[in-house]
Target: ABC-type xenobiotic transporter
Amino acid sequence: MMRTYHNMIAVAGEFAAPFRRTLGYAVISAVLQAAGWAITLPLFSLLLAPGALAVREIVSWLGGLIILLLLEGLVRWREMAFVYDYWHRVTEAMRQRLADRLRAMPLEQLARRKSGDLATILSNNVTFAATALSSLATLAIQLMVVPAALLVLIFALDWRLGALLLVGALLIVPLMLRVRRDANQDFQRIDEVDAAASAAIVEYVQGQAMLRASGRSGRNAPCLSGVFAHQHRVQHQTGHTALLIAKAQLILQLTLVATVAFGIWLSATQQLSLASLLCLAVLVAQLVEPLTLGLSMVRLFELADAALQRVNALYNEAAQVTEQPQQQPQHFAIGLNKLSFYYQQQEKPAIQEVTLHIPEHSLTALVGPSGGGKTTLTRLMSRFADPQQGSITLGGAELRHITPEQLLAQVSVVFQDVWLMDDTLAKNIALGRPEASHAEIVNAARKAHIHHVIERLPQGYETLAGEAGSALSGGERQRVAIARAILKDAPVVLLDEPTSSLDSESEYQVQKAIEALVADKTVVIVAHRLSTIRAADQIAFIDQGRCVECGDHASLMAIEGGRYRALVEAQQHTLST
Ligand SMILES: Nc1ncnc2c1ncn2[C@@H]1O[C@H](COP(=O)(O)OP(=O)(O)OP(=O)(O)O)[C@@H](O)[C@H]1O
Model:
């Protein structure tokens, strides 16, 4: 219970104070409600008293009851204010905080999480967590405080009646603890299979072209097979808690009936007044609803608890921090100093003790066999993740000490998979410099050799990327990304395999676009086509995470039995055959 409360306070964030206040109101209104029912005892006593009716006293008790009801309505109104005033704000703030948290998470950590899982947290779990704060928490208080207060009143009527009820309530405690524990585990499993199903659907939709080509786009698609059946199995298995709840409800009903029967016997044997018996009947009748409703809602409370835990766990994920003291890059040379890096859960390092100096305004090409570590090196230069050993500097400042805003302002990246956001092509190009004028956007597109392609589209620069996506070839998408980098005009450019899998015309166009982008910049390019990087200032040959050779084309070709030389000769041989 306390864990759930702490999770609620953590999730409420800046709204924790009004939330606490609302819980206070919920307690007060529940106590007022129970106090109202307590008035039935003096009323029944007066009504059943022998002799003339004590009208004045009856009216004053009724007046007291009306005041209590008015007070309760007033407090409940304040309580509801949280639901109406804050619900949307809490939901929005929660999503905003989670988005901030995702932004602060190292990209490597983010890439490891399934997108379906994150989507579930940001949509379903946030909605449920907000519902838990806005209405379930106060409902839970109502369902606990009202029966507790009624139990105290029944004890006051006759301690034996109270004790009987208490024993019945204690009998169901172990059952309910089991329901809570099982339901909590169930909902975590349900969340996991739901997230897996969402991820599978995303994969199924994105991979349609490939699946249709291989004749596996139907129910037997590899990404879907088994996912829904597993989801159904898990949902079915998790239904057993409903049986436990029904058992607890039965025990409770029997206890209530036994209490009333015991009260009748006490009254028949002159141990309980008739007024007390009538009052007992009223109090027991008031107990039925909150107790049965409370029991049937335990699963819902646990579902909310699971949502709170998942939202909180994401809040608490490690963030990539800017270490103190903050440093400013003094120039645009890059230094890799004894750099080593492991991907999570990988035994072999992807990068091992790489030391490389990339001078300002120079072109450095990374070459080597597939899986050697070239992409990882460029990713580390944009602080995709922090290296476990060694350091990377930009202009003499360590990346860990540069704020993300400053780093992003200095570095443009064009990676293998060009990502276009769901907006117009103009907005996509202006992503790195939203304040750019239309003329500047067109100018960047011209330099990137993509202007004539965009102009031919019916909506031109106003074409939505989603619609343009299917009309743009791989090379054209890359040129949109290059136009984006040209417009941003950052002094450092990281390019990852921009010429992979293109026909020769597209490759020529992309090459021209790159030439426009890299002039006067510090450039690191991952290259497979060695012909295009002969003029590079330096070429680093990366294999098994190590920099095994480094120099310009001529000096590397001069190494007898050198790795770069062997690669060039192998490519020349392939081209000539
Ligand atoms: N996200 C990841 N998680 C775990 N291991 C990874 C990840 N990305 C890459 N690796 C591993 O790190 C090593 C280096 O990969 P990297 O992609 O940097 O090589 P590369 O030289 O760029 O290869 P290619 O030329 O094929 O793109 C490989 O062993 C690869 O399997």
